[in-house]
Write a structure and sequence with these properties.
By secondary structure, this protein is of the alpha+beta class. It has one domain: Gcn5-related N-acetyltransferase (GNAT) (Aminopeptidase, 3-Layer(aba) Sandwich). It has four helices and five strands. The longest helix is centred in the middle third of the chain and has 14 residues, at 89-102. The chain starts with 5 loop residues before the first strand and ends in a 19-residue tail after the last helix. The structure holds coenzyme A.
């Protein structure tokens, strides 16, 4: 079932609801690092980013963070409240995010998915993404980042 939700850009005023949603969705927000209030304020102020929220009335029920590095668009923090799943909210969020990145000349989109996250894999597959098993290399300058 598709439900009528309002999707709009996230604002700093949505911060607490966003962090709550990530926790409910098992996404372990980095509140001392890249998802601290200060870090989020800077990201939300960055014009090229497309950080979107789906709202049922005043309730934040879905998020997606779209970024780009001028080569690729990256879909991050796709999360939908468990009570609202399987209503194509994630799919709508990704498509709107892609649209905002396409408007900036981006023609390739990517997401990192944990190997056991079959729901996320199914969403991206359904949206036409090819799935490439890969190793992910990263280096943190400090633990909390
Ligand atoms: C992944 C997630 C965002 C999907 O949100 P959603 O709004 O339920 O997804 P959609 O309704 O857009 O799903 C679209 C299609 O993907 C597939 N799909 C979605 N969830 C699925 C699941 N749990 N199992 C199998 N297929 C699934 C289905 O084909 C679905 O279409 P259908 O319901 O008509 O069959 C949600 O499960 C979630 O928040 N998970 C926890 C956080 C997370 O893992 N985020 C992704 C990090 S990469």
């Amino acid at each position: 079932m598709t439900i009528a939700l309002r999707i709009r850009r996230l604002r700093l005023a949505d911060y607490d609801a966003m962090i709550h949603l990530f926790r409910v969705c098992g996404l372990s927000p980095r509140t001392k690092g890249r998802e601290s209030r200060t870090a989020m304020a800077a990201q939300l102020r960055t014009p090229r980013n497309r950080y979107l929220g789906a709202f049922d009335g005043a309730r934040l029920v879905g998020t997606v963070f779209g970024t780009h590095d001028s080569r690729k668009g990256w879909i991050n923090r796709l999360a939908v409240d468990p009570a609202y799943r399987r209503r194509r909210i994630a799919s709508q969020l990704v498509r709107l995010c892609e649209r905002g990145l396409r408007a900036q000349g981006i023609e390739i989109f990517a997401a990192l998915i944990e190997p056991d996250n079959s729901a996320s894999e199914a969403v991206f597959r359904g949206l036409g993404y090819e799935i490439h098993p890969m190793l992910y290399a990263r280096r943190k300058l400090h633990a909390g980042v």
